[in-house]
């Protein structure tokens, strides 16, 4: 297995772009409940263009650097399709793969990762959204959104105690794997960067799902 950067302790985390914006503007973050109320009242559209990150409503960026940030790049679509194909290997009566749907990250996050591995079947979530205790792995596909996915989503996932966070880095065609969340410090203690010839071990409720990195890269 080729590892560009072996797993190592991550240094003290700096303020993220969203944190800095909150401090500069003295914005009061939204709660998850307020976010749901805004959706129910039609203030915020219930679609796939907006997500709640650390109390802030953020438009999703699925573009390539230099393109319209409101667009959905063919590169991003391709990798999401490759991730979707993993459902055949993951789905069972005890776990399933969720694509571009929300997960709850208390106290004020409801991101919509490109993929996540969830305990149980979709029918288990008829009356609620999956929360940290239900989610073993979240995956984001990043090109122009790479800084946001590293600096804003990573602390939110770590604070929620989600055990594994994977970024498919389309800028340099590698896969970044973050593990051992430190909820109090809002960061992951370990990180590995995997190249095309490596294997990424995705955490699921039933164990490890080994995936060749080349199979989820363009």
What do these coordinates show?
The structure is a single chain. This protein has 218 residues and is an alpha+beta fold. The chain has a single domain (3-216), classed as tt1808, chain A (Alpha-Beta Complex). 22% of the residues lie in helices and 31% in strands. The strands form three sheets. A seven-stranded mixed sheet has the order 1-9-8-7-6-5-4. Strands 2-3 form a two-stranded antiparallel sheet. Strand 10 and strand 11 (207-212) form a beta hairpin.
Order of helices and strands: EHHEEHHEEEHEEEEE
CATH superfamily: tt1808, chain A
What proportion of the residues is helical, as a percent range? 10-25%
SS strand fraction: 25-35%
Quickly count the helices. 5
CATH architecture: Alpha-Beta Complex
Radius of gyration: 17 Å
Q: Assign the structural class, choosing from mainly alpha, mainly beta, alpha/beta, alpha+beta, or little secondary structure.
A: alpha+beta
| CATH fold-level topology | tt1808, chain A
In quaternary terms, these chains amount to: single chain
Mean pLDDT: 89
Q: How are the elements arranged and paired?
A:
Elements: E1 3-9, H1 17-25, H2 32-40, E2 50-53, E3 56-59, H3 74-84, H4 87-90, E4 95-99, E5 115-119, E6 135-142, H5 146-159, E7 164-169, E8 174-182, E9 187-194, E10 199-204, E11 207-212
Parallel strand pairs: 6-7
Antiparallel strand pairs: 1-9, 2-3, 4-5, 5-6, 7-8, 8-9, 10-11
